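> @MW can you paste both from yesterday?
MW: sure, first one:
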Amino acid sequence: MTTISDARPLIRAELPEPFHLGWNRIDGVSVEGKVITIDPARYFFRYENPSWIICDWRGVKAELLTARETESTAVEQMALDYVRTHGRTTTDPAEVLAVAWEATAYIFRDEYLNEPGLIALGVRPEHLRMLRELGTVMALNRVEQNGRISNVGPAWMFPIACKVIYGLDHDEAQLVDELYHGTWFDESRRVEATKANAALGGRLVHGCQSQVDMRGGAIVPFGVDLGEFRRELRQFGDDWIERIEACGQ
């Protein structure tokens, strides 16, 4: 297990909506109203590169969300071009959380609850809240271009984290897992998610562990060495999962 320096400052962000109080069960996380505080030394399993590429959400919303792909330019290329032009590096994790909240609140917004497909799946407002909250914290994960997983914490294994935070049983945690990885099984929403994720540096490739054991995963940038990334995933020890599960006991 990687040792993280106690010198890392606390991460504290005030978000538009309060997080579920069940986050207080996760080691290193405390929630009070709209403020979430994360102690890197206790929360992360690895925290080797606390820097991230982001784009301001206001610009993404105004310039990219309304753009349409063409026969010659796919939505992924549009997102990459936007990040190349407007992306910037930040070392402020609170800023990452703020941008991630806006992006995930857009992707998993409540207006979709009236769609017959989601109604048939039994999707409720609390499921979308889980996706917004976990998606926000997952933005602090990081995978390098060489495939090295440099930042990883409990939200990576988010189906298991959902059991601890929200008290879900296996079937309900699997539902949330499928909603996240399947982008709601709809091409138009996949396009929306691609555009919105430009705010987080264009992390557009799903790099996921097996859904059989619901270990979750991450969205990684184009160009990542997926072979090395997969090798890294295979090194994930059960001790990390056991540490998450122990938080709920």
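MW: second:
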Amino acid sequence: MEELLNTYFSPSGLDKDPALLQHSLRLIREWLFVDKRHAYPPADFEALKKEFDTLAMPREGAAAGAVLDALQRQVFAHSVPVNHPKYIGHMTQALPWVSVLVETFIATLNQNQVKIETAYSSTLVEKQVLGWMHRQIYRYGEAFYHDSFRSNESTLGNMVNGGTMGNLTALSVALESQMPGLRKKGFLTLLREKNYEGFAVLASARVHYSVKKALATLGLGEDALCIIPTDDNNRIGLDALEEKIAELKERKVKILALIGVAGTTETGSIDPLAELGRIARREEIWFHVDAAWGGALLLADKYRDMFRGIEMADSVVIDGHKLFWVSMAQGMVLFKSDTSLNRLLHTANYIIRKSSGDLGRTSLEGSRRFDALKLWFSFKLFGLEGYEALLGRCHELASAMRELVVQDPDFELITCSDTFILTYRYAPRAMQAQLEACMQNGDTEQAARLNETLNRMNIALQDEQKRRGLSFVSRTSLESTPYPGHVTVLRVVLTNMLTTAGNLREILDEQREIGSEL
């Protein structure tokens, strides 16, 4: 016992073997900066399972150096190198090296944000960051933010671990707002009292899957989500939305919320938020905006017009671990009114007492890390000008990729958004010509067959590219294209600060090579 205490719970443990610290720093540096051949782990996942298929927990502890060796051999060697310049398939990208330091500071401080008694200055940091972000969305006056910061009775939002928890929190508040007393009485009682035939939440076909999870968790059921078809730009169809609202009202179904998406996961598109806000106001329903992906663009004035109407939202979700370049996991949910979260208010005798100002009083989560420090540190480090420069770099990468795809006769651009997500597919020029002729002649059956052939080719191409591991793009399936049926597309997210135009060209060259062999 004494050895454990002296080694791991006292400063003498750090001083005794400085090589361990150097070993740890070397692992971090090599992972962040050393040029790697593979952008995706080369080992077969089923084979890798054997490395971890040990049922018995270690009986005796090992030396720290041996554990570090095991970490390097078993974990680092088989982790996805998301900082690789040719890893452009998902929203997790290369991070600035300071993010590792901030994670160390968070672990060192080990603050629990549920209660001021376990989160002293960190409570104020969290409130400050929430105020900064709320101001980017709603732009209230100075007095509002001063009063809100000082108040123990209100809060502008919650820090959460990502968009899923943010959407769950927002919809929890929306339900209690639209159906006061729901938390105590439950759905069945209120259905009877209000004479409703059911409940509904409206969103486009591009809405994030976490909304369905939230509705299932809240007891509404996944079927409560009414999906509205999108237009050609993957934005919610306003005519279809109006028709669905009229239908639900006729059936006496209570519409609880309307969700707008500001940066869809699949295509990066932004719904017409101003129009959605006016509809929500007219129908007196909760207006929620899922800006988990695109919300960071509000930091740069040149992108703000794309989000016109977001200030009408009753709640907004934004993820820090996406376009703010901070480590997983960090998100936030902001509310237009600083009293909205009081609908979730809960207290306990030993903690989060009434009027205490404890952040846990209005959070669905209990114990929480001091993840607000990630944004606080980054905002102070980069400032608005720094973030505008980073976002500008993303714009340049997205523009470069778009031009490469458009100019290459063996690829077809499907979507290209202002939030740096692009979808395309491998389509040899001869097949493109055949497909175009079928569409012009109205031969939808042959067009569908050609399209299905291209779908199979692109699935096989993406699988093979992932197997090779030299570069990585993702794939999805879209129904909102001019072609019959669903279209399988390759999807890239152009936010990796280490990616160059040359890397993009190499990725397309590899895809053409693979495609020509299919």
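> thanks! The radius of gyration is 25 Å.
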